[in-house]
């Protein structure tokens, strides 16, 4: 494009390639994980099905990113306790038109290989579905984790992948170097070619020009389809492999083919007024609590009110939230909080708290910095501080949690960072 800045604009041919590439991209959302670090929150459903943000489920974020990026051929691979997830996908994501080649399909684990095993790793999950993938004849395969919270324009990542000529591109987030020891870390040259892939290294590599920072893999990959087929077949035959993209596939290919690191900051969909890329792995109770708590801030790091990049979900039909009673001792009120549809604040007070659908807070109860999942009833005179309350709990009258950690640890689960998880099973044992 004559007169254009080539660093920010694509040529007409580039744009045509990207548009055609989007139509020939198949997205695979790996949504079979248990998420054991969330403890009892995932005892009945998989991590991607966990509610988030008042009305969503975690899996809605990668699915919405696909929709908004122009990718309309999507398969969701399920395995662990998938019933809730399957219902959610069927009810909320069945609006695409199969007649024009658009779909969100559910691919449950079916032991489709001769070994007749369940998925043994992320690469094995894709390998077991190669026949289905080939049936859709994609040119590119976009592989996504189904359990992270972020907004990303995959079309920009695909454009970089096409222009680079790489066989595989790996999305990376920049993190402080000594905080990256729990990630798959990527060492790159000055052109972002991958020269090493290190799984949870004690001494992560720096970034050229920024030695105090490291590129950490987000578990997001774009593969040329034919290349993906060949390396998955080789990996499946390797008895010493754990059949994982980060642990086996990518490291084994470094130096053999062109692999690119795609920096998330280039394709992140930023909240208004912010230039720090937002990506959260909500895989621990503390991280899950903190990500939900951020949403009640005056200006959250994640903007769910941005109509230009909406997060789609299945919404149950519920009446609007209701606040009743207004005396000094008994006032239904919420400050710096999110209150979802179907909630009734009946003479209770909530501050810096997020309520999912159909929560009732009864008279004289007070909640502070708590996340309350759907269908919970908070009894009179209850006090909750820095809690996560699982769905469907009936919190008995007068219960106080968050003031005596030693007592809380005897009755509930308390994380190292002081977040108390309350479940129906905990309540039944009181």
UniProtKB/TrEMBL annotation:
It comes from the Bacteria. Residues 319-422 form the Glucose-1-phosphate adenylyltransferase/Bifunctional protein GlmU-like C-terminal hexapeptide domain. Gene3D superfamilies: Hexapeptide repeat proteins (2.160.10.10), Spore Coat Polysaccharide Biosynthesis Protein SpsA, Chain A (3.90.550.10). Residues 27-295 form the Nucleotidyl transferase domain. Alpha-D-glucose 1-phosphate binds at residues 119, 184, 199-200, 217. The keyword Lipid biosynthesis does not apply. CDD domains: ADP_Glucose_PP, LbH_G1P_AT_C. InterPro entries: ADP-Glc_PPase (IPR011831), ADP_Glu_pyroP_CS (IPR005836), GlgC_bac (IPR023049), GlmU/GlgC-like_hexapep (IPR056818), NTP_transferase_dom (IPR005835), Nucleotide-diphossugar_trans (IPR029044), Trimer_LpxA-like_sf (IPR011004). Pathway: Glycan biosynthesis; glycogen biosynthesis. The record marks 79, 118 as: Could play a key role in the communication between the regulatory and the substrate sites. GO terms for molecular function: ATP binding; glucose-1-phosphate adenylyltransferase activity. One of its GO terms (biological process) is glycogen biosynthetic process. It catalyses: alpha-D-glucose 1-phosphate + ATP + H(+) = ADP-alpha-D-glucose + diphosphate. Keywords: ATP-binding, Carbohydrate metabolism, Glycogen biosynthesis, Glycogen metabolism, Nucleotide-binding, Nucleotidyltransferase, Transferase. PROSITE patterns: ADP_GLC_PYROPHOSPH_2 (PS00809), ADP_GLC_PYROPHOSPH_3 (PS00810). Pfam families: Hexapep_GlmU, NTP_transferase. The keyword Transferase applies. Its EC number is 2.7.7.27. Homotetramer. Belongs to the bacterial/plant glucose-1-phosphate adenylyltransferase family. Involved in the biosynthesis of ADP-glucose, a building block required for the elongation reactions to produce glycogen. Catalyzes the reaction between ATP and alpha-D-glucose 1-phosphate (G1P) to produce pyrophosphate and ADP-Glc. This is Glucose-1-phosphate adenylyltransferase. It comes from Phaeovibrio sulfidiphilus. The gene is glgC.
